[in-house]
Amino acid sequence: MGSGRHICPSSPVDAMDLPFGSYGTLKYQLADMPTVRDTFVEYDISADFELAEGGLISIPNDTVSISQPPIQNYSLCQSLHPAFLNMVMSVIGNIEPREFNCTPDAFSGAAGLKDAILALIPRGGSGINTTTVWYLNISLLEGPVIDFANKTAVGQLLVQIEVFIKNADGPPTSILSVRDSLKLTSMFSVMGHRLILTLSIDSHDLRLVSSSVGISEVASLLPHCNSLLGERILPLLSGPLGGGIPLPRPLRTPLDKAKVWIAEPNSSAMMQKMFKVCILSILFPLIVPSQGTNPGTVVRVNQEALEYVCQEGRPSLLRGLSIIKIPQFVDRGTIFQPLLNFVGINILKVELPHLSLKLIPKTGVQLSFSSQFHMRVNLLISPLELKLGSSIMLDIRVTRSPHGFPVLSITACKSLLGDIQIIVRGKNLFGLPKLIQDHIRAVLIDKMCLSVSNTVLGLNAKLGTLVGLNTINPMSQLQYAMLETPEITSDYIDVDLNAAFALMGKPIDVSSPAPAFSLPPQERVSNDPMVTMGISEHLFMNLFSTLGQSGAFNLNIGGQSSSGGFHLTRSMLESAMPSIAGRYPQDAVFGLNVVLSRHPIISLQEGRAVLRLSPAVQVVAASFGSSSQSQILCTLDVDLSLALKMEVKATSLQISVALEG
């Protein structure tokens, strides 16, 4: 990987060890001396992965080198080698086989998968008790690997799925074993100083390995395998990747104004990724603790917010539907065979005239939309324009992952298709023969659900970023995590969050349990915010306690090291302390040390928040040039009451203070 920057060539670049979750540490260092150009400096940076359990993974020495992208008007450009990304993927993809019950508790689509398998077993050929508990075992055989070519990034993964029954008095009975070769859509973005990689399932190649009950065809299991892998395997990859791969920052340059490229080796073409971060401002009203079960924080998302998210997701849905591939149609059984052979069926455009999300109490949400497909077919006699109306309904379940972030899974999908029309000059001319209609409908009715499901499941990678350390100041951090599955009503979703504080990376133990806390019932008003966050008094107490322990309230005023031009002189103190005139010369240095002596106390009332601090103020003195031998003249115990003003800016709650009274 290399990077260039408009900067003084004498500035140093230090080795950077950046932790990557529980997997280990990415170790960056200069591979060679920087190359100084006329307008920028170019660095070649090597990257190794030091595993948490021991060992080091490096990029092979014979890896094809990559070229540096043009810096143009950017302050920083980084070119990432595909081998670097696949090195990270090899660490994340080292997943042990997953074995679990084929029940709805372990996999939401278990019942549908079981019924689909039973339907494939020949009559009288199973001898399987349908009430017996089935088990699933999922193993990663190859990958994940991302291939970069022709300005695209495609992930590849080979998975084996085994369905079996455990016997108390013998070896397990294998029902079915299949291998699924998956292609994954890979999307990149930059957030902070991290590269975010979002994966979603693009296509499957499902093959039968073995079956002891006579199953010979497994094509009908494709949508069930898609849901299974999207729910149980994809989050294991998308979770850590969604949290971001930490990138090096030469001279600590922020990446928010940088260009990041993923280079194709041996090619002058680069796959360029332009990144934008869209921020939604939300309202955070302050709530006084009330009866409830939440330890400290509740986030409420109402129906209007879901509609907003739904409309924002419209381009992704359109993109997923428009890239569906429809194979050519060959008529093999009629006298019109030469006329009806389609050599190409292309989707020109997809429209979504209706798109909505509906809350399903205690379960999740239901996505529904209607669409219009505009297609062109290359018939041997003449090209034709086709139009097809359709609708789809997708049931989405919202649960909690073991790491404390929301997880979406698909529990049901139903698609309906209308008649295919031939359009001439904007008017419907006549319908297509039934054979051709059946061909197109059979492809779309299957792939529509698959495409929409992949788009929705792709959100899990972004939801995984909700769990992570957020920096409060250089010494302290805050981490949010879901406590349980969200509470879903017909009007809103309530997410109970736990807020854990850390000091220099070490968790702070909270001795007193959080009081019961919840948001009041939803009120329907015209200016009701889309997202409401209730913050308890207990959370604020822990926040200011953490700030106190980090030294955020400690100050040094005056003295030789004082900044801002403020100095304490002897004449300023003589009126209150006359004896200092005879003890210290005129040029003596005086200062104030402010040290917090007790934990801060905060009280929340209706429309009012007050912070009480009890600092000890020390008056110190030292002769000029001997500040290391300072003496404490006196100590004053002070009680301060500060009025807090809170304001949301971007995604942060900013607090300003003023002396009360």
Structure characteristics:
Bactericidal permeability-increasing protein, domain 1; 4 domains; 661 residues; Bactericidal permeability-increasing protein, domain 2; alpha+beta
Describe the structure.
This protein is α+β, with helices and mostly antiparallel strands. The protein folds into four domains: 2-80 and 251-273, no CATH class; 98-243, Bactericidal permeability-increasing protein, domain 2; 279-541, Bactericidal permeability-increasing protein, domain 1; 553-661, Bactericidal permeability-increasing protein, domain 2 (Super Roll), CATH 3.15.20. 18% of the residues lie in helices and 44% in strands. The protein has twelve helices and 35 strands. The strands form six sheets. Strands 1, 2, 3, 4, 5, 6, 7, 14 and 15 form a nine-stranded mixed beta sheet that branches. Strands 16, 22, 23, 24, 25, 26 and 27 form a seven-stranded antiparallel beta sheet that branches. Strand 34 (640-649) and strand 35 form a beta hairpin. Helix 6 crosses helix 8. The longest helix has 24 residues, at 434-457. The protein is elongated and about 110 Å long. The chain starts with a strand and ends with a strand. The relative contact order is 0.09. Residues 1-14, 266-294, 334-340 and 561-565 have low confidence and may be disordered.
